[in-house]
User: Which sequence fits this backbone?
């Protein structure tokens, strides 16, 4: 049987104290429960990581406001945040560091390239981890501790591959990726889906996640006369790439995944962003079940939410709901509850996991830059 949890129900199950019973010493006597977090908080991906972290912090604040109890004792959730710098080697060191801090669960890491090596560290410790990672490999390792916040690249790549052939009428497609676990994984799935839908991949090129000059790649692609160009990578690269597409005279629109569907891409690409297309998991934020209220409350504390903010929020509330339902912060006791959970979240009305830790339900929204802004083209249910 699935363990049902909504935000309100979870804390009822946690036997929250009525506020009138809370004395002056209640807050100080509450047992601290540490929640680990890791993401890039410096460098070119810091805007992703900070928006993600703020979503997590809002969830902790909301949980603590309800005066939760676990095991008959008041608890207070606190964040232990670490900067993994989007670097795989640093990520494993960070994973050990947050474990040493005495955490009860982990939200993160952000990148697939950091989440995958860190997941081995957490798995060895039996520590549940809800990551933003989208690479298929993250949940294909056989670990019982790995869970996703977003749909996988298999879902996103397949949706976009079908979309460009069936809806955009593209037949000749060029594909570029940044050779990261995320970028290459997304591009691989897109490549497969294009071919399955009857399209042709006329060029497959790669770069790095540090590159800024793509002229040699684009010169090679230009001779193939593609209808569209797909890029698997972050906005730090897709922004300059969009500009160089225009400079070299390539008229094919740029397509990409959720890490391009950002305001940073619009700033970096400038006028060259016009006509670019990108996918993002789930519904537009203002159309999410809890989106409007989340946006209002997030703005009051942190300013404009980033695209990953509501996913960080939901992941944190789910982790806490599992602890409350199990009436324990011990990983071994609440992990089975987490694996079987159904949660009414901000991003979706029912969030649950399959046997591997992938989201059981999901959808993709496709966006296009029109007049310098991201506009919805289509939402595709999965």
Assistant:
């Amino acid at each position: 049987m699935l363990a049902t949890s909504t935000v309100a129900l979870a804390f009822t199950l946690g036997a929250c104290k009525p506020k009138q019973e809370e004395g002056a010493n209640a807050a100080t006597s509450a047992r601290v429960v540490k929640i680990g977090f890791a993401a890039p908080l410096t460098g070119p991906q810091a805007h992703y990581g900070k928006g993600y972290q703020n979503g997590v912090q809002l969830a902790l604040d909301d949980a603590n406001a309800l005066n939760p109890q676990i095991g008959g004792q008041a608890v207070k959730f606190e964040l232990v945040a670490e900067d993994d710098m989007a670097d795989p080697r640093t990520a494993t060191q960070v994973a050990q560091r947050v474990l040493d801090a005495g955490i009860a669960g982990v939200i993160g890491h952000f990148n697939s390239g950091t989440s995958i090596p860190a997941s081995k560290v957490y798995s060895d410790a039996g520590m549940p981890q809800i990551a933003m990672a989208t690479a298929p490999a993250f949940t294909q390792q056989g670990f019982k501790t790995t869970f996703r916040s977003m749909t996988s690249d298999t879902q996103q790549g397949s949706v976009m591959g079908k979309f460009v052939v069936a809806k955009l009428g593209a037949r000749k497609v060029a594909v570029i990726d940044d050779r990261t676990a995320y970028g290459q994984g997304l591009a691989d799935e897109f490549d497969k889906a294009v071919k399955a839908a009857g399209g042709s991949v006329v060029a497959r090129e790669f770069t790095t996640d540090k590159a800024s000059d793509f002229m040699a790649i684009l010169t090679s692609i230009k001779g193939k006369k593609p209808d569209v160009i797909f890029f698997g990578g972050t906005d730090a690269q897709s922004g300059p790439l969009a500009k160089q597409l225009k400079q070299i005279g390539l008229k094919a629109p740029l397509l990409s995944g959720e890490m391009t569907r950002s305001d940073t891409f619009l700033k970096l690409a400038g006028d060259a962003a016009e006509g670019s297309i990108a996918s993002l998991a789930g519904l537009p934020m203002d159309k999410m079940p809890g989106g409007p209220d989340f946006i209002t409350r997030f703005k009051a504390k942190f300013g404009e939410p980033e695209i990953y903010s509501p996913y960080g929020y939901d992941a944190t509330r789910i982790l806490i709901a599992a602890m409350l339902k199990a009436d324990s912060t011990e990983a071994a006791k609440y992990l089975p509850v987490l694996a079987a959970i159904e949660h009414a979240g901000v991003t979706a009305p029912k969030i649950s996991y399959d046997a591997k830790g992938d989201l059981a339900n999901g959808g993709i929204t496709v966006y296009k830059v029109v007049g310098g802004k991201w506009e919805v083209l289509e939402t595709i249910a999965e």
About this structure: The chain has a mean pLDDT of 92. Residues 153-281+364-381 form a domain with the Rossmann fold fold (CATH 3.40.50.2300).
